[in-house]
Structure formats: C-alpha cells, structure tokens
Amino acid sequence: MNTEPNDQTETGQPVTELRNSSVPSQPQPVGAPDVTPDVTPQPPTPPPATPTVSEPKKGSKKWLLLVLAIVLVAAGAGGALWWHGHKATPKPTAAASTTPTVRIGLSLDTLKELRWAKDRDFMTQRAQAHGASVTTLVAESDDQTQIAQIENLIAQKVDVLIIVPHDAKAVAPTIAEAHKAGIKVIAYDRLILNSDVDTYVSFDSTTVGKYEAENVLNAVPKSVAVPNVMLIGGSPSDNNALLVHAGMMDVLQPLVTAGKAKIVFDQYSADWSPDIAYANVKQYLATGGKVDAIIAANDGTASGVVRALQEKSLAGKIPVSGQDAELPAVQRIVAGTQTVTVYKPIQLLANQAVDIALALAKGQTPPSTGTVNNGQKEVLSYLLKPTAVLANNIKSTVIKDGFLSSKDVYGTH
Length: 413
Ligand code: GAL
Description:
The protein is 41% helix and 15% strand. The protein is of the alpha/beta class.
C-alpha cells in the first residue's frame, strides 16, 4: 500500500481510505432517498418449467379459429368505435380549454356607435386566442348603471378590468375598489380622470380633431375669404371630445386670430347624439345663420349635420367632417355629402388592450408610448395614430385594411 500523506482530494479526505473500499461509493444528489445497492450473494434460481403441450383435436382447431376470428372482429369494431370517438373530440388547445387563463371584465358605455360592437368582438377574439375570456357589460350611457356593472365585475373576481367610461369622472371611485380587490384597470379609448388607473390605451384624439379641421377648411372654396365655421362637438362627459375639440382649435384659433376664419357656432352634443347635432344645425340655419364649413367630431354627429343640410339642399355644398370611418360615412364621402372621416384601425387598439391586460395579469409592466396626465397622475399610455380618409384614399386605407369592403362602400367589387 503506498500512502503519500499530503495527497488529499478536494474534500480533504486522505487518499488511502478510498482505494481500499470494495464498492466505489457514488455521490448522492441532495434530498434524494438512500439507494446504496444490497450485495449479499443469493442461491441460483432454478430455470422455469417447460409446459407439456398435447396436439389439438381437428374439431377444436376449427373452434379455435372461430373464436380467434370473433375476438379479432370484436377488437376491430371496438377500435373503430374508439377511434371515431377520439377523432370527433377536438384536442384541447390552450384556447379551447375550459378554464380561461385570464378573465377580463369589459365595461362599455354604449353599443350605439357602430364601432363599439367591433371593439368588443376584436377583444373577445384576441383574448380567446390566448386562452383568456372577456365578460362584457354595457351601461347604455348611464353612469349609475356603469358603476354598478363595474362593481359586479369586481365581485365576479375578474383579473383585469377594461373600461370605456361614459363619464370620465363618474367611474373614478371604482378604480380604488378594483385595486382593493387586486384588479388592474385599463382605460380603453377614453381616459378616466382623477383616478389611479393603471394604463390608458387609445388613439391620439387631438390629432383626430386636427385632421377634421384641416381637411374641412381645405375643402372650402378659395372664393370664401373668411369662412363661417360651425363646431359640432362630441359628448362633454367624454374626455376624447375635449381632446378632439382642442385639436380643432389648434388649427382654427390662428386663423380666427388672423381674421381668416370665423367660428359662428361651437357646442358639444351630449352622448355624441346625432339628433342633437341635427337639431343644432337645423336651428342655426332656421334663424338665417350663414355657414361655409361644419367640423363635426364623429360620424354619428356628422350624419345629423348632413340630414339638416339636406333639408336645406345644402348637402354636398358645405364641407363636413367625422370620425370612426363608419360605412354610412364613407358612403357619404363617395356621394360627396361628407368630406372626411378620421379612421382609427380599432382591431389594433383592441389587440393592444388585450395584450396589455394579459401582461398586467402577470404582474408585468405593459408596453407604452409615453404618459398622459389624468389630473391625478401621469398615466402609462399606449397611443396609436389615426388616418384621415377622403374620397381619394378610401381604397388604400379602410378597404386595404379590410375594415370595410369595396362592395359595401361602392356597391361593386
Ligand atoms: C369617442 C370615440 C369615438 C366615437 C365616440 C362616440 O370616445 O373616441 O371614436 O366613437 O366616442 O362613441
């Protein structure tokens, strides 16, 4: 036995001991049970007995074959039945699994404008594609109903709330209630003011107002030196209407100051009502009011404006704006009674909102394009850019995106 006293392993054990032990000891993984093998010698096991087999009788062979055939047929039938059953039931994909990974509560102000049903359906599709679900409640433009519906969704223990507020301030208290229940809140399309809302996902509504004003004023005949301009605003309870109005004034104010334009009427329309827009223009014209341009905040109010102009055979002679690229509005642009609508590809917005909801549900910080102050904090925000649609770019915008079909807009492919 050669022993070098200083020759030690990394664990500090002398070499000698190791070499002599009969079975090399394997290092055991921490926490695993003791599995050292048992080596005591065992008596040899006798070989298995070979069974004695007698030749089968002729008749019994036939039986045997018959039984075999029956067994095979039965097995075949059973197999076919099983396969049929197995093929019919779809494989559980993530989306189809019964328990949604994330439950989103969607509180809508209204479905009155055409876009909101699309927003809801796009969000639902996106959520389902990610194994999540969307529960939607619609407040029919009533604040108490919306507050009660949001509290209902909180009581249902949704993971994230997506809210389109009817009134930017009225729903603010529900944000604190949601947070107490550990639920994150996204302000969708419309900002929720004076609240600790988690994130805001929308289009740049100030730019919407700018595009509306610029394209209407561009359409006023150059022969009109100082155009008389009517502003038909959206709902004063909706922060977007204020942003759109601010965008309109960014374009108009310098012209007014320079005496190159005159604002002859400037009013909001509660709940973005087409009837209020109609009544205001009808009233203004009925009192002999002169108008050269009407900057309406969305396609709904624009439809009311055009109805009033038609009654005075002025439709198509006075440029009118709108927003949302609703089918009737794009058809009016083709017909020449509306000048512009501001298109907002809402599928992008809906997808972004759901992706942000899924990130928030996982406790992640969602993507953003900046912040917007809501009177209480700088809200993390994701703002998308809108596009002005006029007669000369309908094909390259709303039709190219598949937002509207050429058949619907032009009646032909
Ligand atoms: C606004 C929205 C517009 C318009 C309007 C009426 O908040 O940004 O797209 O639809 O509501 O619902």
